Amino acid sequence: MDLRQAQADLELAKSNIKVIKEQLRAARNRFEVGAVTRTVVSQTEARLALAASNAELQEAILTGKSASYFAIVGKKHGVLSVPPKHPKIPDIFTHAEKLALENHPRILAAKLQLKVAEHNLKASRSIGGLRITGSVTSKTGSTISSSTGAAIQATIPFYDAGNLRSKKREAVSDKKISKLALDNAILATKSKIQGYHSSWLAAVAAIKASKAQIEASKIAFEGIREESNLGSRTTLDVLDAEQELLSAKSNLVSALRDEQVQAYNVLSEMGQLT
């Protein structure tokens, strides 16, 4: 997703250069006939230099993202496919949180560790108590004689240098540690799922807002450009309107990336990644 975002940002930067070059050509033509001042031409040239600098920056970012892709995937990227639709994310946070607390591996592992500690504590409490063992023996002799014997033995330790009490205390401490680990796992999951879910909702809203912003900025840009041709708007007004449109498109690219990434972060905290 980072690589796709970098590619899209570079394309927007290149497209911006083309638009400003056209504006610069028009400004120079008007300057030749005395319709605008040299200041207007200089302003447009400055915007073109800024756009070229931004394109170089986006090219550098893309190079870095390509290197990261190669390091993770193990081969150079070709044409990236459109991401598939991710599994459904609950719109209501409490639903996502419930699934997270029930399914996240960190919580499941902590619960199992606590169960182990409880079994160990139970076993340690049985050590050192009264122990009774029994046995039965049977001996058969001739056809007219046989014997059966039974033995019962009870043992209880009186002194073991404190080893038994030490093992019990250790088992109690292990249980407390395991309980604390479970509490921490639950707390961490609650914190992360809340952060990721909020970010996902924000990205969903940002996509909707960015699309509306693009439509409005596009209409404004076209209108201001026509007004500039009629002399009621300056070239700087056109450049500003074009920059607004570029910003709206860039915001959409970022929002689309964030929605995908945050969705999978939520799925991860819900314990639903395969």
What does the model show?
The chain has 274 residues and is mainly α. It is 74% helix and 7% strand. It contains 6 helices and 2 strands, in the order ααααββαα. The chain has a two-stranded antiparallel sheet with strand order 1-2. Helix 1 runs antiparallel to helix 2 and helix 4 packs antiparallel against helix 5. The two termini are 19 Å apart. The model has no long low-confidence stretch (mean pLDDT 88).
Defining traits:
274 residues
Write the topology of this structure.
Layout: H1 2-32, H2 38-73, H3 93-103, H4 105-126, E1 131-140, E2 146-155, H5 163-229, H6 235-269
Antiparallel strand pairs: 1-2
Helix pairs in contact: 1-2, 1-6, 3-5, 4-5, 5-6
**Helix and strand pattern:** HHHHEEHH
Mean pLDDT: 88
Low-confidence stretches at least 5 residues in length (pLDDT < 50)?
A: none
Which bin fits the share of residues in helices? over 70%
What would a concise description of this structure say?
The chain is mostly helical.
